Amino acid sequence: MRRAADTPRGTAASPKSGGARTRAVEVRRSSRRRRTVSAYREGDRTVVLIPARMSEAEEQRWVTVMLDKLAAQESKRMLGDGDLAERAGRLSGQFLGGRAHPASVRWVTNQNTRWGSCTPAEGSIRLSHRLQGMPEYVIDYVLLHELAHLLVPGHGPEFWRLLESYPRTERARGYLEGVVAADRLPHLPAARRE
């Protein structure tokens, strides 16, 4: 039930995690909220709760952040090795014309400098456990990247042409570059909260 202090800001269509359907996003501003932003799924829509004082730009940024966070949580709960194999088949069919047929797809814990790897001769694909919890579009990109290696071993123009059909390639690459950059930052103690 919505409290009187919560006012809906409006709804917008947003890609639903892992699918072609869209899920409505409702932003609720609250004068009671000072700093926190939260989000949850409510039926076929996502509700994002923000402080009333936030600007339009901050609202848009936080909606994106919270949608990615929810998608990551859902992805972490749902994906096992069997799910990865099924997902690989779906991605191959959708973006590679069904031409990539991995013999195995699994999570591994021994890849700390790569997001994924592929052995074309064996048809095996391995994804780093560090991807677990990241947004689904990022996992899909890495999986599709490795599937493309079953067809083209190197990173030449033919390889990148295969990935052109995936609409979130650049966004996923940017996300992963951001994670790498953040890992390289000195780990300073958290700022004191007042």
From TrEMBL:
CDD domains: M48_yhfN_like (cd07344). Keywords: Hydrolase. Residues 108-176 form the YgjP-like metallopeptidase domain. InterPro entries: UTP_pyrophosphatase-like, YgjP-like_metallopeptidase. The keyword Ribosomal protein does not apply. It holds the Pfam family YgjP-like. The keyword Hydrolase applies. One of its GO terms (molecular function) is hydrolase activity. Residues 1-36 are annotated as: Disordered. This is Metal-dependent hydrolase. It comes from Streptomyces gilvosporeus.
